[in-house]
User: Fold Glycosyl transferase family 1 domain-containing protein from viral metagenome.
Amino acid sequence: MILVSEKNNNYVDFDWEKYRDNHPDLISKGFHTKEQLWWHYVYIGEKENYTFYSVHDIEVTNKCDINNINVFDEVTYDLHYPHLKMEGFLTKEQLFWHYSNIGIKRGYTFFHINQSACYSNKRKELEITQLSYSISNNALQSRQLVMHKPTIYYYIGHTCQDTIRTGIQIVSIYLAKEYINSYDKHNFEMIFVKWDNLQKAIVPCNPLEIHFFFNYNETNDVRETIVYTDYHPIHLNKARPLSNCKLFFPELTFVQYKTLPKDLNRYLSAHHLYSIFILYDIIPLVLPEYNIIYDDFKNYVYSNLLNANKIITISEFTKTEFLRYMKDNNQLPKLVSIKLPYQYRNKCLAKPSFSAIQDKVTILLPGTIEPRKQQILLMKLFIKFIKENPTINVELITFGNVVHVCKEDLENCIHQAEGKINYLGIIDNERLFHLYKNSTFLCFISKYEGYGFPISESLWHGMPVLTSSFGSMAEVASCGGCYCVDTTDETQIYDALNTLIKNPKIIEKLKNEINSSSFTTWNDYSKQVYHELTKYLPSI
Assistant:
């Protein structure tokens, strides 16, 4: 039992503003409202405000035959569950309280059920079934389970901990933002989860991980509507029966742990979990230069994708490629193609700007500089152009990471261009937004893509694109505003470059196409994915 001071021994009289002022760090952890701060006060609190009892009435078995704080091994407990530090469990008393009242149901048996406590920012209503429990006759009274709405477990295991923000992470983040921002319109609850490699189980993410997921390197602050506070593996949550849940994987599973795909497959199979995966591409399976990750990616495909209930591809091209690669497999999951949106993050659609006179032509060359995307080839053709046309005022701006095999070629191209190729390195979102706004056209001449984010992002900003006439790039470019050529042919690439630099009327024509096009948004995309996520989910 937790004893609190007489002044604050009930929710009605709780001086939440004073508690907030005395604990300014809680704001950054997502504790803003009276309900949230009361939850923190009751469930976490401070040593000086609480008496942490040894709780002789809690029986445990197996791992630690203890029922008092004196023999509690707080060091081992802390090492096993490092996330507790981020949630305010620092002292021996606090860790023992967590062990006794929340615990991790692994290695010992708890003879009471700790119902998950949730709170809502938007609805301003307390969703905590009981904020305290009573001890009677030296035994804990069982607490009534309240069944939750159908649940979508949204996997963010990599993005919630890593600073990498590739196209895959962008999809995961902005799709989640749409669901959070329209939470009241949905008939399900969304819980953000990750893989716990120690427990070999799916567990909820903590508030700091969720905050990092939404807001790292982003310009707008997003807070989760419901913060989940039961960190047991999801299969132990009796209030959310797995028959009423689905797992959604918008990111790759093999990036963090190479063993994860097989471990995850065992976990999903053991608990009969319904799973849906987004498939971005099968590049490592079809391009020899990616054989360094071929085995890991193939393991992911055969352990996770082929055992999923449904796969959502990001383009019709990716769906076709996957079916072609799996032509001899007669037991594929259901495949649905939902094309990614054109919207660039949370930015509003920008109309093309028309100018009669171009003082300078500025060409953008985005993306990780690697052989598949052919940036080095484009730079060499650009150098050829400026040597043949020395009086034309033109520059090429490239940015992104550089793979090792391209570093020397990049340096040589910059040197040969005599100041007309500018490499910016890795840039932030605002710098990228500025470049899109102030450049003439973008080049994206990749040999193979699952989608082609730079094409859609450029069109969203009203800027024409020189791109490939095949694969997913042709699919994205089909809305208009793109100058498409066979980018396996160097002559066609050079001719296209020459045409777009020297003919502003063609740029203007492409801008007119952009101006009359209709572009999908993250909201449009989220509605289509929502339809697939909620099919056959009980009560929806």
Remarks:
- The radius of gyration is 27 Å.
- The chain has three domains: 2-140, 151-341+524-534, 361-515.
- The first strand starts at residue 2 and ends at 4.
